[in-house]
Structures are given as C-alpha cells and as structure tokens.
C-alpha cells in the first residue's frame, strides 16, 4: 500500500506524490467464510481492483511470494477499548498508561499463538523468515501460499500493469481466527510511500528569489499589478522559530523533558550538521549533546525506486521545525529501510515497542482510494498499542485539497483518516511586526502569472495549485470524539450514519507563508554547501503541531498527552484555546506576490513573477467553527496553557 509525504517546497507549483499508508478500520475481525466452516475469512485481503473483468488467469504455482501474517494478540477488542479509555478525558482510566512491556504482556500474542501460526504456515510449505511481536514473515511459492490461505492467486490488470492478488478473500484455519489479524503481501502491487513535496534531491541546489517580506506585509510589491483591489505584499523569506512560537502561544515552554519521534524513509547524511547550523543562524537554542538521535535500519532497500535522496529534505524540515518550536525537546529520527509500507510500519512499531517517544510526527500518506483493509488493520493495531502507552501519532493531511484535481476523485488522505491518529491540516499564516499573530486562512493557493507587459496578472486569480488536504472519509466510521463538533453535513457526506472527517487541527502549511529551512546541497560547481530556502506543506504543519504538543505536555507537568484527539475536541469552543481559522479574515481577499528564479538558483535564467491567492482550497472551505481544511482551528495563546490549568 502506498503513502506519500506531505511537503511543499517554495517553488512555482506544489505536487503530491503517492505513498501508500494504512487504511482505517478499528480492527478487522475474522468472520466465517461462506460454505467453509473449517476456515475463517480475513476481510479486506482481496483488493478491490482484483475483479473478474480484470482477471488474467492463474499465477504460476512456482512464482515466489513474501508475506506477513500479522498477529491479532490475545485481546484485540480489549486493546481498542483500553486505548479509548486512557485517551478520553471523561474516562476514569484517562492517562493511566501501560509500559511497553505491560502492554505487550496484556495485549500481545502469546507464545502458543505464535507457535500455532508458525506450525500452520510451515505445514503448508512456507518458510518462516522472521518473527516479531507484530507478525510472522514467510516466503515460498504460490502453491504453498494458496494452500495456507485458502485462495487461488491470479494475475489482474491494474491500470497499465498486471499484478498478482487473491482471487478470493484469504482465510485461516478456524482454530487460528483469534491469533491472526490479517495477511499482507499476497498481492504484489506496489505498496510504497513517496514524498509529497517540491523539493529536488539534495544533489540539486534550490534558492528563493527576492524581494521578500521579513514578516507578513513588511514589503509591498508596489511595482507589480494590484490584486483584490490593492497592492499586495511580497511572500515572506520564511518564518523562523521565534515567529512560530509567538503565533501558537508557546510562552516560556520549550518542550523540556519531552521526547518527540519523527518517522520518514531513509536518512539524511548531513542532518546533524544542517540542524546545528540552522539553529545557530536563525536564533534557535543550540542543540545539546545527545538531544538529537537517529534510529536506523541495518540496510536500506529500494533506494532508486523510492528516490531515497528526495527524502533527506523531509527529515531536515521535520527535525528543524520541531526544534524551532520546542527547542528543549529530545528528538529521535526513526528512518525506514524503504518507502514501502512494510518498512514504515516497522519504524512505527519500533517507536511503540521501545517507547522511543510520547509524540510521533509523520509527514507522509496517500489517497484513501489506495488504502487496503489488510494494512489498515496492521496500522491501527500499532496506533492502539501506542495509545495505551501514552503515545500520540500526528499525520499530515496532504497537499492537494480535496484531491479531485490530482486523483480525479474527491477523497481524503490516509493514514490521516485513521480514527486513531491526529490529522493535521494546513493554514496560511500572517505573523506581523513584533512577532504578533495577525490571522490565518485555510491553505489553498490559486496562481496567476505576470503578463508580458507587466501590467496585469493573467487570468487572475488563476488555477488551483495546492492546498491542505481534508474532507470526509468513505471508509472510516465517525469516531465518538467528533460527534457534536463536526457539522452533520460533513460527517454524513458519504454515509448517512456518519464517517470520519479530516483534519482535526491545523498549523502553518502554505509555502508562500512558509518556514525557512537549511540543508546541505550540491551547487553547479560540484561543491556541497549549506543553503537555506522557504518551504511549506502539511508536512510542515505536522511537526509544528507535534512540537506544540510537546509544549503542552511540559505544561501538564510532563504527563504524556497520549492519543490527543479526545482532549483536543473536548477543548473545542473554550475561549482562547483555538484560532477559529476562516478563508477571508480581512473581508477583501488576500494574496502575496512571488518572485522565483527560473533555474532555481540565480537570475541568470530569468525571473518568474506570480500572484498567489490565499484561502482558495479546491472545493474545501475554512469557515466559522469546525471545517474540513483546518479542523477545530490552530493553537491559540490559550492552547498550551489549557493543559496547565488542570493537571492530570
């Protein structure tokens, strides 16, 4: 299953690259297969694209497969119930977290279950290649897999390619239904992640052209045409930590004694140098010895297929943004071996199994249509195991608005649509003189370019280029914490009984009001040097919210916030806690002027002038109250402090 990182660079247009992440169910129980009382079906294991019309015939019996049988544990229902109870401020169990060891002992698979699963798989002719707390990995030929999982494997057309998949829903022997959660790997369609950004690989330098505003509105584009009835400001050079901390009510909190983890694929070889240099140059507290850690796999795979170098900028943004807002927090970067979901799941599991942090920032995802229920179950199990330990996961909501222009279908991103994670939407942020918060709009950009005679913006306001992801899930039922807050029209957009709506909360994302980041890049003369540029996307919003949560955890006396959604929604409507973000806060329309180097480096290739409208997010709108661009809003001055008012 694929996922994509949600980051947008400050270049002429924003792109969203696919990455398969988890589909969202609250757990997928086994159910008896029709006409086969001796076996139990594993719902969701036959992909929706494996149709009779697309069937190209049986896969060769000798073809090889690699699969994972995910373990249900000894009390899947109890795990979900406990995860809810410890996360709900109204529950007597709120905040009564378990240690990683106790969580595994209470909810993990027993030795007997693991032994039974291994015995069944080997008896079918498959070879066990790995056993973890979460799954049993196997390899073997198609004939053995068909015997083990009670289904034929056929080849199916999917787009312009052909992939293997189960012709019927996979199943397990009836005696194992309580031991097996699901199986992945029976289909061999790409289940990978790609980063959703405009960042060229670090071997190609990128710079922003000026003029810039140093704070919102500080420099007016007086020589350029009007927009919305008047002169507009130049885009800012890029906000820094001091400005973001002021905008989101950091106060004196710094995230002291709070641990944040960041997951991405691969790892930047210059992250320590870049992060250290950036902090010193931009007024952040210097990194202390041992404050930044990396937890990396022994080997990387699929580096060319996944574009490994392109992930370096994502890690750089995430690490620098977290430190800028929560400069005292301990940061652990957990790199996946590849951009495939199996490896990303391993990284998330590593955080949970070793309790590496209480707060986990994740700037990747894919469209909901690409999610598969088998991986959904595996992802949600990890999120639930995290919740019972007091670990909260934050996922970017995507950078293509309602996704209609990008994918052809209005849909949300995954795993941001999970009922067990906090989905982070995006805003355009105006921080004024003296680091004062002015306003925010929902992030949505329409772009028009300067006419040849320089007297008008061609086709103003222009076409939609990028915006915060959001909307109503087609697959995930409405979680209890959204009821009474999310408008009924949104919740019931795809289902009369109500579904999950994304996002939950929001922060700065628009690259035109974006964040300054520093990274080592290769210049045309072959030298590698540190350079800075402006960046945005909900890939920025996610680490910013994760950092704000670190401040809130410090305010709460260090007690972990855990899965934060129930508490976030419980605070909705309380005075001074959230900025209620709307698309046109000034009433006159908003835009900034951008100047870009045509070659991404200097003026030798010419300059490109454009106007970027703010608050124009596809069919989505940031309105008064909860909305599907910014959720409950962005953290206001009272948000962090609200956790100090009542310590748990």
TrEMBL record:
<feature type="signal peptide">
    <location>
        <begin position="1"/>
        <end position="33"/>
    </location>
</feature>
<dbReference type="InterPro" id="IPR050819">
    <property type="entry name" value="Tripeptidyl-peptidase_I"/>
</dbReference>
<dbReference type="GO" id="GO:0004252">
    <property type="term" value="F:serine-type endopeptidase activity"/>
</dbReference>
<dbReference type="InterPro" id="IPR023828">
    <property type="entry name" value="Peptidase_S8_Ser-AS"/>
</dbReference>
<keyword id="KW-0732">Signal</keyword>
<dbReference type="GO" id="GO:0006508">
    <property type="term" value="P:proteolysis"/>
</dbReference>
<protein>
    <submittedName>
        <fullName>Serine protease</fullName>
    </submittedName>
</protein>
<feature type="domain" description="Peptidase S53">
    <location>
        <begin position="238"/>
        <end position="647"/>
    </location>
</feature>
<keyword id="KW-0720">Serine protease</keyword>
<keyword id="KW-0865">Zymogen</keyword>
<dbReference type="GO" id="GO:0008240">
    <property type="term" value="F:tripeptidyl-peptidase activity"/>
</dbReference>
<dbReference type="GO" id="GO:0046872">
    <property type="term" value="F:metal ion binding"/>
</dbReference>
<dbReference type="InterPro" id="IPR015366">
    <property type="entry name" value="S53_propep"/>
</dbReference>
<keyword id="KW-0479">Metal-binding</keyword>
<dbReference type="Pfam" id="PF09286">
    <property type="entry name" value="Pro-kuma_activ"/>
</dbReference>
<keyword id="KW-0645">Protease</keyword>
<keyword id="KW-0106">Calcium</keyword>
<dbReference type="InterPro" id="IPR036852">
    <property type="entry name" value="Peptidase_S8/S53_dom_sf"/>
</dbReference>
<dbReference type="InterPro" id="IPR000209">
    <property type="entry name" value="Peptidase_S8/S53_dom"/>
</dbReference>
<dbReference type="InterPro" id="IPR030400">
    <property type="entry name" value="Sedolisin_dom"/>
</dbReference>
<keyword id="KW-0378">Hydrolase</keyword>
<dbReference type="Pfam" id="PF00082">
    <property type="entry name" value="Peptidase_S8"/>
</dbReference>
